[in-house]
What does this fold into?
Amino acid sequence: MLLSAKQDWLGNIRGDILAGIVVALALVPEAIAFSIIAGVDPKVGLYASFAIAVMIAIVGGRAGMISAATAATALLMVTLVKDHGLQYLLAATVLAGVLQIVAGYLNLHKFMSFISKSVMTGFLNALAILIFMAQLPELTGVTWHVYALTALGLGIIYLFPYVPKLGQLLPSPLVNIVVITLIVYFMGIDVRTIGDMGELPDTLPIFLWPDVPLNFETLQIIFPYSISIAIVGLLESLMTANVIDELTDTESDKKRECKGQGIANIGSGLIGGMAGCAMIGQSIINVKSGGRGRLSTMVAGTFLLILVVFLSDILSIVPMAALVAVMIMVSIGTFDWGSIKSLKTNPTSASTVMVATVIVVVWTHNLAFGVFTGILIGSLFMAQRLSQFMYVDSDYNEDTDTRTYTIIGQVFFNSSDKFIAFFDFKEAVDKIVIDVHRAHFWDITAVAALDKVVIKLRREGADVSIIGLNDASETLLDKFAVHDKPEEIEKIMGGH
It folds into this structure.
């Protein structure tokens, strides 16, 4: 355990420090932009990004993942800030953190197993599109210098790694930011810079308990926002953790991540910051720049605060074109280009789920809506597929005048009608055996279907028996079935 912790912090010192510096520079305009989205002062987003990144580095479950103020959570705060002000937002942030800690103890991270590969691919593709779309305001209505600088930045990012010795020593996104900044500064090129995004804070954050009444009325106001922030934040964080797991071929502790996100959000709210979660764009920047350990996340948060408070004069001259180039690189790297080719070869259901996830996320700018849509459509396809594999074999024994129905497959809400239709209720036989040793009854709809079949066959005069129930199905039937309960049968038969 100690060895693992030491590896997380000290196993990649140079790579983590350099990657953290790159991420910190990329976090500044994002934090300011998200503050504007939420309708609060830029320092709220900047303080949040500092607090969340530093705390998640210590208590999070995924080394090398970047968490900070995000658009996904900022969008959920707009109405709260507009109607009730900043202090209620801080209270909602603290409550969202508490809910996330509770989610961690309740093991709600296990619901991630419901997210299929198709939904994950759609999630990544939608994020790539959103990241690129977020750069368009910086590329519209501008002079040719911006396009030239952005193109030069992309050239540096993709070509610098091939420079002998230096290419592996320094992360190319950092080289891009330094080179573009020097070119703009010394050549006096008039382009938009970080300083044009908004006023940077000049003081360190302080402990700030939200100035709201501690009563039930306040809880009624903030709880709907807190639960939304908690769910969206955990969803994006856990999915980002899965992505980084794959990129680095390592495992992460999802339960610890849930608790860590909660602690980080509580800390953010108590120093005047907004809620946040994991950021897939910055997390990929971190990994692509060589960051692997917790030190990279700690450096990103710490250096961010140093930049905005103590080095704001230097930070303010960094051209947005340099950061746009970094984000375009992230967009290109995030999109699963092979998924386009796979649309023709993958099953129609998988392709539909992926495309639907992308469309909903891009249309609503809400990752949770897209993921839930993908899960819902995928579940419907799965239910339909399972019902198609359910069928019944029938065999008649003349010597004993017995008809045996052998049920094969899954009986549940989507296959119950098909199950009933297999039986011939008008056939005159003395005995009917329903063999279910190759079947499974999943829900009360399946139990009701079996009740209907048994009762109708007995009404026609047949002696009906059921054999081969597995333990789970038998438990379900014992609890909910009525065909072997005389008092229930009498009620049913009496009604006809």
Observations:
- The first strand starts at residue 67 and ends at 69.
- The mean pLDDT is 87.
- The chain has two domains: 2-361, 389-494.
